[in-house]
Amino acid sequence: MQTDTSPSQTHTLRSRLASLTTLLLIGAIILTLDRITKMLVLQNLAEHEAWAPVPALARLVRITHITNSGAAFGLFDKMGNLFLWVALLVAVAIVYYVSTYPSLPGLVQFSLGLQLGGALGNMWDRIAFGSVVDFVDIGFWPIFNVADSSIVIGVLILMFWLWREEERQKQQKTAASEA
Fold first, then answer.
1. pLDDT in tens, 45-82
2. Per-residue pLDDT tens for 36-45?
3. Tally of CA atoms within 13 A in the half-sphere of 28 that contains its CB
4. Which residue in 8, 127, 126, 13 sits closest to 69, CA to CA?
C-alpha cells in the first residue's frame, strides 16, 4: 500500500531534517574544536603546567592544564558521574526537541547546536578520562574549555531569543488590543 505525502508534510519533514542537520553540523564543529584543543593541551602540558602565549599578558591570559571532576568552572567537584548522565540527557533532549519541531529559528538552532557540542565534548572527557580537561585561564575567572564556553554562549543566546520573543508577543498583543 502506497501512501501519498501532502506538500505540507513534505515541507515539515524537510524543515525538521534541515534543523537537525544544522544542529548536528554545529554540534560536530564544536565537538571537533573542543577535542583538538584538549588534545593539544594534553600533548603539550603536564597537569597544572601553564603556558603564556603572550608573555606580557601572562597575568591575564594563559593556558593552564587542569582536570575538573565537577561541573563547569569547577563547581560541584567529585560529581562527574552525575554530570555524565546530565550531559547525555541534555544531548538526547536537544536532538529530540529539534527533530520534533518542524521549524526552529536559525538562532535557536545555532544555540542548541552550541549546547549539544559542548555537552558532548565534556561527556567525551568524562568517559575517556574520568574528568574534564580545562585550560583557558584568564586569571580572574575559573579555568574552562571550549565546551564550557559553547554551553554558556548557547544558553545566553537562547535566553536572549526567548526574551526577544516574549517582547515581540507583548507588542503584538498591545497592537491587537489597540486595533
1. 999 999 999 999 988 999 999 998 776 555 666 665 78
2. 999 999 999 9
3. 6
4. 126
Select which of 34, 125, 137, 148 is catalytic: 148
Residue 177: predicted pLDDT: 83
In a domain, 141, yes or no: yes
| Rounded CA separation 78/70 (Å) | 5
Domain that residue 53 falls in: 10-174
User: Does 179 reside within a domain?
Assistant: no
> Looking up cell 565534548, which residue turns up?
121
Which residue, 89, 82, 109, 91, is CA-closest to 18? 109
User: Which of 153, 173, 45 minimizes the C-alpha distance to 107?
Assistant: 153
1 in any annotated domain: no
Q: Is 125 in the active site?
A: no
Q: Which residue has the higher pLDDT, 175 or 66?
A: 66
137 flagged as catalytic: no
Number of domains forming the structure of the chain: 1
Residues 6+ apart with CB under 8 A from 176: none
Specify the pairing of strand 50-51 against strand 62-68. antiparallel
Does residue 58 fall inside a structural domain? yes
